[in-house]
Write a structure and sequence with these properties.
By secondary structure, this protein is an alpha+beta fold. It has helices at 4-14, 19-26, 30-37, 45-54, 59-63, 193-210; strands at residues 2-3, 83-84, 89-93, 104-110, 127-134, 137-141, 144-148, 153-157, 162-165, 172-179. It folds into two domains: 1-64, Orthogonal Bundle (434 Repressor (Amino-terminal Domain)), CATH 1.10.260.40; 77-179, Jelly Rolls (Sandwich), CATH 2.60.120. It is built from six helices and ten strands. The longest helix has 18 residues, at 193-210. 18% of the residues are buried.
């Protein structure tokens, strides 16, 4: 499995950029980026996109997504490739050609936590459908927590604080479908202007609040 944090650290160092410089450019704290690099915190895809933008890269390059035409539209379970988010959470993309659809489906595997940690809340654009396939998941959403058992599901607005965790002694498997798809359609480029605008707006807001 490849680890998002380690790959992000390698990319940052290859650009000779410090955590503080990257945090300032992306509108995030250096401490948060450090947690991501060390596999201690989840990260939303659009937040990762902002970091990659500051590093002169993008989601496609980061995940090495192939844009060639796919003959077989079926995603076979024996061929799943996994990406580590944290030490105990990994995901696999359930699409043979992620560029051709509006939805972004993923299969998450959460191992039991070795040590209980505080779950960082995520907020980003879009909405998500989450369904527990195996195990018992703790879903945090809009200031409340919910226990979801196999077959249970929840649909959420992603701009409200949310995340999930495995507080049990057994693996948890989750199906997650996110909209909008963070990857651009084939032949189109990612519109980074709105991302830059939002980062600058947050910086200005933070500066105004300090005055």
């Amino acid at each position: 499995m490849e680890q998002i944090g380690e790959r992000l650290r390698q990319l940052r160092k290859s650009k000779n950029i410090t955590l503080e410089q990257l945090g300032k450019e992306a509108g995030l704290s250096a401490g948060f980026i450090s947690l991501v690099e060390n596999g201690k915190s989840n990260i939303a895809l659009d937040t990762l996109s902002k970091i990659l933008l500051a590093l002169g890269s993008g989601l496609d390059q980061f995940f090495d997504k192939c844009t060639d035409e796919i003959d077989d539209p079926v995603v076979h379970s024996v061929e799943l490739t996994w990406t580590l988010i944290t030490e105990n959470i990994a995901f696999s993309v359930l699409s043979s050609n992620v560029h051709n659809f509006e939805l972004y489906p993923r299969f998450f595997l959460m191992h039991p936590e070795a040590e209980p940690t505080q779950t960082e809340m995520l907020q980003h654009d879009g909405e998500e459908f989450i369904m527990v396939l195996e195990g018992v998941a703790t879903i945090y959403y809009a200031g409340r927590s919910y226990l979801l058992y196999p077959g249970d599901s929840i649909q959420i607005h992603s701009n409200l604080p949310h995340n999930w965790a495995n507080k049990t002694n057994h693996d948890v498997k989750i199906l997650s479908v996110h909209s909008p798809n963070p990857f651009p359609k084939e032949g189109t480029a990612i519109d980074t202007s709105e991302i830059v605008h939002q980062v600058r707006k947050r910086k200005k807001s933070a500066s105004d609040s300090e005055d």
